[in-house]
Amino acid sequence: MTRSQGFVLRSRFLLPALLIALAAAGCGKAQEGHTLVTTGSRRLTVEQFEEYARNGEVMQPYFALPETAQKKALFEDLLSYEVLAAAGARAGFDKDSAYAKIESDALPRLLPDALYEAHIGSSVKVSESEARIFYDAQKEENRLAVIALADEATAKSALAKLGAGTAFAEVAKGMSVDPNAARSGGEIPGWVTLGQLPLDVEKAVAPLKVGEHTGVVVQPNGSYIFALLEKRPRKDPPPFDQNKEEIVKMLESRKKGALVAQYLGGLKKQYELKVDGPGWAVVGDKVLQMPDSTARWLATDPKRAGLSDAELKQAIATWTGRTYTVQDFVADMSKSDLNDRPPAGNVALSKMFVEGKAMNEILVTEAKKEKLDKSPKVAHQVERAKSSYLVSKYVEKTLPAGAVGFPTPAQLDSAMHAMVQASGQQAPPNLTFQALPPQLQQQIVADWQTKHRQALLKAEVERLKADLKPVVDDKAYQAIPWPVPAEAPKEKA
């Protein structure tokens, strides 16, 4: 066995990383196309395989392999994924109540992106000459400060204080809704070129001299005032050719961002969105002021938390066809990740949170009007979410945490010596696992358990393959080019 072959065999079983990537990627077409693998009632098509091969998130763990080995490694892991999903369905996990809710839970996340893609995605192109012009213009870098406000009215109040002579840092500390900006007096860490900023922010900052500030810059997530603290020539910029792809992607992102902001602004006017209902008195005076011991009842028993039916029904936002109430706010807060919730007591950020929820509902409504919820791509993304659930549940059942076990002292010493050798060093003959620092011991145990779990998972997949007998179209597999073309070939009329 050559050294490269040994590396391929050791690295080939990348399924755990693939499970995470497939759950997030959702690329590919629906079940149309040429069948590559059949496992029971499940099909993996050539078109789906090629779409996964184009997806950087899916392919990331395979780039460490030689290019000649990547195709086979991806295929083997996708085959394993299909087998595990089929086993999950056979075990009855597709009858779970959580499985039945996957589509309704996924659509609010998937449809806004589908709508952006339909209206904006294909319209944004950046040429190499545009990237070169942009690169040549980035000769200076800037140190900036910012005051972040929830809405334009509050931002104008902050602007008035600056006009009256109050120092920028003092206004930032007293009014910024961004806790980091408030603590630092608004200073943004590090140096940036203007091109790294959103396009409308760049236009506002570009004319400034050191010590000056912008007017109010309205963004989809709030309103901002920027100040220029310092300017200097850019130090040692990388060569254009080395940075070209990154610049093109960044410019595409900026163009998309500007179009998205314009699109969202149009929808906001069309739906007459207003986030200023009378219920904000209840939110500000009661909901956001509750101690944790009381707030824990908000989602399950709001009356026990001290809110009456009349208070829960009060509107805090309205848009065409919808009244968003205090009760809706309480429900959305309870369902949101802790990192996504506004800080306790902060009404300004709570209004931004509600506006974000409102715009997401509006986008979903628009997407359904355009029947994007029935599109092949969204249907496939939903199917991938369902497959991910089946795989995860089956792996949890078959390989629970306790199944991995704990290495023996001899295995720990062996793993320790292997780690030392891999670093290119020579381990002292009397070195033992017990002599290592606790942090290093934990790392070695965790690495051993990860490898052992992968081995157990691989063995289970091989058993399932023998049991379920997936059918592979070898001719179709051999015909797939590698690397796959950047764009799927268009069908002839």
Question: Can you describe what's shown?
Answer:
- There is one protein chain.
- The chain is mainly α.
- Among the domains are: 3-120 and 383-400 and 471-479, no CATH class; 139-236, Chitinase A, domain 3 (Roll).
- Helices cover 56% and strands 9% of the residues.
- It has helices at 3-11, 15-25, 46-54, 56-59, 67-90, 97-100, 102-119, 128-137, 152-163, 168-175, 179-184, 199-205, 240-270, 280-285, 292-295, 309-312, 326-335, 347-369, 376-398, 409-422, 438-468, 474-479, and strands at 35-39, 42-45, 140-149, 217-219, 222-233, 315-319, 322-325, 471-472.
- A three-stranded antiparallel β-sheet has the order 2-1-8. Strands 3-5-4 form a three-stranded antiparallel β-sheet, with helices on both faces.
- Strand 6 (315-319) and strand 7 form a beta hairpin.
- The relative contact order is 0.13.
- Mean pLDDT is 86; it is low at 1-13, 26-31 and 489-493.
- The proportion of strand residues reads 5-15%
The overall strand count is: 8
Strand order of the largest sheet: 2-1-8
- Give the radius of gyration: 28 Å
Structural class: mainly alpha
Characterize the biggest β-sheet.
3 strands, antiparallel
Helical amount among residues, as a percent range? 55-70%
Q: State the low-pLDDT regions, or none.
A: 1-13, 26-31, 489-493
Cα end-to-end separation: 49 Å
**What's the shape?**
globular
The run of helices and strands is HHEEHHHHHHEHHHHEEHHHHEEHHHHHEH
Note the total helix count: 22
